[in-house]
Amino acid sequence: MIELDRRRMLEGLGALIGLAALPAEALAAVAGKAPSLDKPTTALVTAFADTLIPLTDTPGAVQVGVPAQFDALMRDWASPSHRTAYLAALTAIDDEAKARAGKPFALLPAAQRLTVLTAYDAQHLKSNMAYASLKDMFINLYYLSEPGATVELRYEHNPGVWEASTPLTADTRAWAGAMPAGKLLVIA
Predict the structure, then answer these.
(1) What is the pTM of this model?
(2) Sign of CA dihedral 74, 94, 67, 114
(3) Helix or strand run (H / E) with residue 18
(4) pLDDT tens, residue by residue, 134-155
């Protein structure tokens, strides 16, 4: 269901890593910080995160704190134009849910949220850059979390010998962390 453009994902990862490298003083110096998200928006963000990466045999986006990380980014990092664009993209999803199901996105059952989001993706993922960027951000926030990188993905801090061919099974996970020479990063 989730289509990833590797280039956009890597750009997002690079931006988030760059943000993490900034000293706290630089982040604290941001003038005019925005307020935290209100309760309805937080519920929408949580429902969106849960629909993108639900709890399965591995932690989902909600369990690893993606909604709180998104709130912090909108409050402490995003420029007013980016904040407006991301929140407008979320509002458009909520409006789509109200039009299709008669309820806000956050109040829909998980299966119905997935149906709404799948239809929304088909119409807007390629044409709405704010939505595509929002979706990439949520996925990047998930895979940058410790559980996302160590439970969902196969993580090896200090990889051993190069494996020319790794057999793929139903239990094989993609890699996170430092890649040994010759390995490709595969998002499964």
Answers:
(1) 0.69
(2) negative
(3) helix 6-21
(4) 999 999 999 888 888 888 877 6
